Amino acid sequence: MMRAMWCCLVALLGVCLACSLIVITGQSTSTKLMWGTSPLTPASLQSPVDTWVDVPNTNVTVELLNEVVVLISYDVSVSHATAIEPEDFQVKELSELSFRVAVDGSPYRQSATTLDDREPVVAVASGYLVLEIPRGRHDVVLQWRKRGTHVVTWAVTSNILDGFAGGRNLVVSAQHRFI
After folding, report:
1. Counting C-beta atoms within 10 Å of the first and last residue's C-beta, which end of the chain has fewer, N or C?
2. Smallest Cα–Cα separation from 131: which of 78, 85, 173?
3. Cα end-to-end distance, the chain, whole Å
4. Residues 98, 85 within the same domain
5. Are residues 95 and 25 in the same domain?
6. Cα-Cα-Cα-Cα dihedral sign, residues 133, 63, 36, 34
7. What is the domain range of residue 9?
8. Average pLDDT along the chain
């Protein structure tokens, strides 16, 4: 009976010590290595033209205990709706949709990819970025930009073609140097 009481007391003391450590340091003792989002909400872009804007609900906040190298990747299944034109109408310019990643408000061109209106009903845009970032809190966001006027709306809809052809993902994976 006494031994069980001591074991319970030691376990309780361990829990209290762990909670105190979290409160004192202001950080969790566990290290998270992956963050992500896969929103099911629809997103569409009609305007502005030629201006980068955040893709709605496609952002991740990362909390790092140490400086790390991260791999940021995204994929977006996107469809487009063009303006109704007469049959003999010749399109003079392509409409394009570009994506890129921004970290803490700074965009990275090496993460960019572009689709145009010659794509099929649903096209997948994907990209990635390898980046070394310091410890602390970081905001990662996916941005998009529409160019041209032939496509009226670019859309990401999770329910297109029975719900298995649309959607978007943003994933941040960290490799910690010191654990």
Report:
1. N
2. 173
3. 39
4. yes
5. no
6. positive
7. 1-30
8. 81
49 and 101 housed in the same domain: yes
Going by pLDDT thresholds of 50, 70 and 90, the confidence category of residue 171 is very high
Instruction: Name the residue with tokens 């997103």.
Output: 43
Quick one: 2 and 57 in the same domain? no
Q: What pLDDT digit, counting tens, does each position of 93-145 carry?
A: 789 999 999 999 999 999 999 999 887 778 899 999 999 999 999 999 999 99
The length of the chain is 179
Number of domains the chain is built from? 2
| H-helix or E-strand spanning residue 75 | strand 68-82
C-alpha 117/C-alpha 81 separation (Å) is 9
Nearest to 109 by CA among 145, 83, 138, 81: 145
Q: Which tokens in the block code for residue 10?
A: 């030691």
What CATH number is attached to the domain comprising 85? 2.60.120.760
The b-or-e profile of 68-103 (16+ CB within 10 A means b, else e) is bebebbbbbbbbbeeeeeeeeeeeeeebbbbbbbbb
